[in-house]
Amino acid sequence: MLQQAGLYDKVWQAGVMLLPVQSVGVMGDERTYENVVALRAVESTDGMTADWCHLPYDFLADVSNKIINNVRGINRVVYDISSKPPSTIEWE
């Protein structure tokens, strides 16, 4: 989706993490209790420091909707806006 939106060259590294957290949500007319994924995209020149990518809200909304509607067991998508430091690029 980054390529389709013309944002691929703005991102130095991106990833998706399945979190060990479940979330209450609503799908259709039913309450759900499913998993959460975190998206992380950063800009950097050397990996020693990095800032989160300020991706357009419309793009993030489209990605979130696509994940929730097409990946069974996911009902929430979050976007990590932490810079390095203090956080790292990867999640462990």
Plain-language structure description:
This protein has 92 residues and is an alpha+beta fold. It is built from 1 helix and 4 strands. Strands 1, 2, 3 and 4 form a 4-stranded mixed sheet that branches. A hairpin with a 2-residue loop joins strand 1 and strand 2 (30-43). The two termini are 25 Å apart.
Topology (SSEs and partners):
Layout: E1 13-27, E2 30-43, E3 51-52, H1 57-70, E4 74-79
Parallel strand pairs: 2-4
Antiparallel strand pairs: 1-2, 2-3
Please state roughly what percent of the residues sit in beta strands, choosing from under 5%, 5-15%, 15-25%, 25-35%, 35-45% or over 45%: 35-45%
Order of helix and strand elements from N to C terminus: EEEHE
The secondary-structure class comes to alpha+beta
Percent in helix: 10-25%
Number of helices in the DSSP assignment? 1
- Which word captures the global form? globular
The radius of gyration computed from the alpha-carbon positions, rounded to a whole number of angstroms, is 14 Å
Our measurement of the CA-to-CA distance between the termini, rounded to an integer number of angstroms, reads 25 Å
Kindly state the mean pLDDT as a whole number?
95
Number of β-strand runs: 4
The low-confidence runs, each spanning 5 or more residues with pLDDT under 50, are none
Major sheet summary line? 4 strands, mixed
